[in-house]
Each structure stands twice: as C-alpha cells, then as structure tokens.
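CO-FOLDING WORKSHEET

Operator: S.A.
Ligand of interest: zinc ion
Run index: 242
Mode: holo prediction, single chain
Checklist:
[x] sequence pasted
[x] SMILES validated
[ ] output reviewed
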Amino acid sequence: MKTQPIEQLNEIIKNSNNIVFFGGAGVSTESGIPDFRSKDGLYNQKYAYPPETIISRTFFDEFSEEFFRFYKDRVICLTALPNPAHIKLAELEKTGKLKAVITQNIDGLHQLAGSNNVIELHGSIHRNYCMKCHTFYDAEFIANSDGVPHCTVCDGIVKPDVVLYEESLNINDLNKAIEYIQQADTLIVGGTSLVVYPAAGLVDNFNGKHLIEINKTPTKETHQADLVINQPIGEVFSKIDI
Ligand SMILES: [Zn+2]
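OUTPUT RECEIVED:
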C-alpha cells in the first residue's frame, strides 16, 4: 500500500536533524496577506501602474507619494496573524531540528509565531529607516503617516527596509541562506513556484537527502523534489507531528 504524502513528510522530518525551510508568498497568503506581485483586476482600476513598476527603486525615488499610497494599501498588513505553517515551523525550531527559515516574505509573521532564526531575503516592513539620519521607525509609523513618511528628527524620507525591484539582495543574508541550505539534510520549499529570483538558484546549493516541495498549485518544477505535496501549506503543516 502506498503511504500518504503527509506520512512520508512526517517520516522524513522524524529522521532529519538539519531541516531548512524556504518559503515564498504562498506562506503569507494563507494568513490573508495578498501577494502584491500578483495581478488582479483591482490594481488596474486603482493604480495606473503594475505592481512591479510601483515597487521599484526608480518609482520610489520619482513618485514617492504614489509609492507609499500603494505600499500602505497593498503591502503593509498589520492585522495578519501567523497560520499553522508559521506556528509549526516555530515549534520545529524549538526541537532543534529546524535550523533556519529563509523567507521571501516581508511581513514578520515567522517571528510573530516564535521563530528566532529567520533570514528575510526581501527585508521587512517592520524595519524602516530615515534616508538621511538612519533613525529607525516601525511599521505602525509608516502605516499611520500621512502621504510620504518623514523623519521626526531631520525631516528626511523614511524608507522601508524592503528590497525593491532594481535593488540587490543583502549579500550577508544571501550568503547565510546559501550556507544553511548547503548544510541541510532536508530542504522544505513551501508556498513558492521557485520562479522568482533567487529561489531557483538558492535551491541549487542543496546537497542533502530530501528536497520537499509544498505548494497549493502544481508548478513547473525544474528541480527534482523527492516529495511534492500540492495542498495548502497551512493544512500540510498542521498535520506534522512533533
Ligand atoms: Zn532623519
């Protein structure tokens, strides 16, 4: 009799001592956070530009007002709560099996769920800095600001510490992510299609035993995953035994 995918997943996790999780937008969408990169009809009615254009460095510099209108409306979501995937990953970290969460999400939900070692490849909405004097501001400051947020110390523009299109990833974070992936015996990739740079390239660094992909919709997987589970990630993680 063929074992069920969830049973296989539990068996792999049971026998692994160095698990790394790599997560994409799908992990957050199950917490009700919209994938701001996805195109829906709403954008076209409300914004004159596609999200990739608005969330770019050029646009930020040239049309700050419009950037922040979109950013506050579509990117920041301060009411979202961790879902079973975030919670189970935090529990797995406490057992010592899970060494790191590498995420492309910027919402901080892994930390809210209790994870400590989180590598945020695209930055975080919870860190914002004045471009002139580098004073720190939290996400609430940005959300509650009127128009373009300005520093209360020097009046400089406060920029979210998120990686915009045309900006490069933090090299230290990228190297740390590669190191964790190289050392892992099990790599679980969840909620991403692996088409967004640098996901595909990062997975190439994996030399361990089990590559697992959990994604709601089947994707064109270029990497050879040992186990593919096409179910909502929260549902899958809620069935993991610890
Ligand atoms: Zn300042």
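REVIEW:
Residues 130, 132-133, 135, 151, 153-154, 156 surround zinc ion (CB under 6 Å).
The longest helix spans residues 171-183.
[x] output reviewed
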